What does this fold into?
Amino acid sequence: MTTQFGPTYVRAIAPYIAGKPISEVARQFGLDEARIVKLASNENPLGMPESAQRAIAQAASDLGRYPDSNGFELKAALAARYDVPPEWITLGNGSNDILEIAAHAFVEKGQSIVYSQYSFAVYALATQGLGGRAIVTPAVKHGHDLDAMLAAIADDTRLVFVANPNNPTGTFIDGATLEAFIAKVPRDVVVVLDEAYTEYLAADKRYDSIAWARRYPNLLVSRTFSKAYGLAGLRVGFAIAQPALTDLMNRLRQPFNVNSLAQAAAIAALGDSAFLEKSAALNAEGYRVLTGAFDRLGLEYVPSDGNFVLVRVGSDDDAGNRVNLELLKQGVIVRPVGNYGLPQWLRVTIGLPEENAAFVAALERTLAPA
Ligand SMILES: *Cc1c(COP(=O)(O)O)cnc(C)c1O
It folds into this structure.
């Protein structure tokens, strides 16, 4: 018998499936990189803001030194923006890091974590990575069933993950409903509210989760610079919570988990409200175009409040992979979501107008009767 390394719960982990890189698709299908359209990872189609590029160029001269372990300047900027003390902020190597640190900081091996079916893949990974027990509640209309999640909280539950808007489905819970849920969660259970797409919310849907962090000592709000701020490649996210939570997060994080370029770029992007507005407007327009095309083609989709749309491309369980392959051959990369238990669906990131048009044209060619 060959030796098996590691704990059973680590061996049981299904690896995260990322969006295919442009270079890989170019090699695999013999395509020109410049003509490939990637709508697979919910990146900002505008790329990195110029303000951040300038900040990086400046910070690059000092890369011989370690980054500021405490992220003084970035935390100061975030503290001013959100009107919380810097001690309430934890920085992460992407918000993925925040989610992982939270799971390890608040949950022991064998204890349980509650999250919803069809919610972000990292919740399962973080749970499995520490040998935790996952309690997964069935989704309703592809979104979180908060009543079921509340009812599922067990004696040994220490953490609940909620994504709002959720990825990969784009579903949204309104502020009043969400706060009522948080108020009902037992105070010894940490609620990690993952708001990776909050900057894309329409004005009438916004709510103030930072105010809730002041009210509920068991709430940790997670945000990222990867999506609307356009800094996915730099890896920077943050959490806001009261010191009782933040203290533990800070003990567990790697001392230099956010690099110098990321800190500098995040400060610049945080101050670049024009870029955020442009990104949100572009996204809203792209959403209308994509969902208009889906309506025209008679395709079911889940209404989304993020920068992506989940669309059903067939009624058999090979549909997602089959259509995905045809799109790849035409140089369009989207995300099959069979690993989420959604094999008939594809998740499409909203791109630039020309990218959206290329995707729709490729999809139409793929679905046209032979
Ligand atoms: C993209 C995403 C994240 C993490 O992104 P980072 O790049 O690690 O900050 C977290 N939560 C959700 C729901 C996401 O979609």
Q: What stands out?
A: The two ends are 51 Å apart (CA to CA).
